[in-house]
User: Which sequence fits this backbone?
DNA sequence: CAGTATCCAAAAGGATACTG
DNA sequence: CAGTATCCTTTTGGATACTG
């Protein structure tokens, strides 16, 4: 786990280590809305307002921050289409699609294992 | 996944709904240390100090709060063994073991997909 | 439409010292 | 050993009003 093959672009991280950057990534994905945004984008690109409606209860400020952070970490793209009014599409990157899979499992597990009522 | 067998005690939740209790559960699992604690307990019960060492950088106050919350939600048990000095074991419940699976996938994905360096 | 700006409250995180 | 208690900082969340 501390060895790095010369031909590999990746090393294995340890989320239990204090300074491991993987922990930052885990933190980003652990935000209140991050997993929900990524899940919403699994079906295809969405616009800001569309996401806002899908994520019941999110305020524009918080949604913006969530989107920016996901963009900074390379999970989603933000595409501005110059028209009037302006149109902005958010979509998953390959990395985002990769993260979407385990997150979907987690969401599904939570949905089926949470007692309602 | 949206069907519920008549003999099942569970209904399907929707984490996208504002008032869905599943969202609380997702939030608990999304805490900075929750997924790490659950992962640490997958190998077997651990004591407070053992967890503290495994989760590099966690303070006793924060660890306590994390453990209490996981206990409240039924993911872990806290067992006090009356001896001197007192011994306290934390262990996963069945629910906790269930949650551990998708969380392990997520951790593993993060560890292998986070660029280090 | 897709955000910003502002203000605020609450939660989370953390360092450190102390205790049954 | 397994926490509490205290104090503090940072982060997060949120309501609302406004703008190019």
Assistant:
């Amino acid at each position: 786990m501390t060895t790095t093959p010369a031909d590999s672009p990746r090393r294995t991280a340890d989320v239990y280590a204090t300074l491991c950057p993987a922990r930052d990534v885990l933190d980003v994905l652990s935000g209140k809305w991050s997993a929900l945004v990524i899940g919403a984008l699994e079906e295809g690109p969405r616009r800001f307002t569309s996401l806002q409606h899908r994520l019941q209860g999110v305020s524009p400020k918080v949604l913006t921050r969530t989107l920016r952070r996901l963009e900074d970490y390379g999970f989603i793209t933000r595409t501005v289409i110059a028209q009037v009014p302006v149109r902005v599409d958010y979509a998953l990157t390959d990395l985002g699609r990769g993260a979407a899979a385990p997150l979907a499992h987690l969401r599904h597990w939570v949905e089926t294992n949470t007692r309602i009522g």
Remarks:
- Residues 47-49, 52, 60-61, 63-64, 80, 84-88 of chain A lie near DNA strand C (CB under 10 Å from a C1').
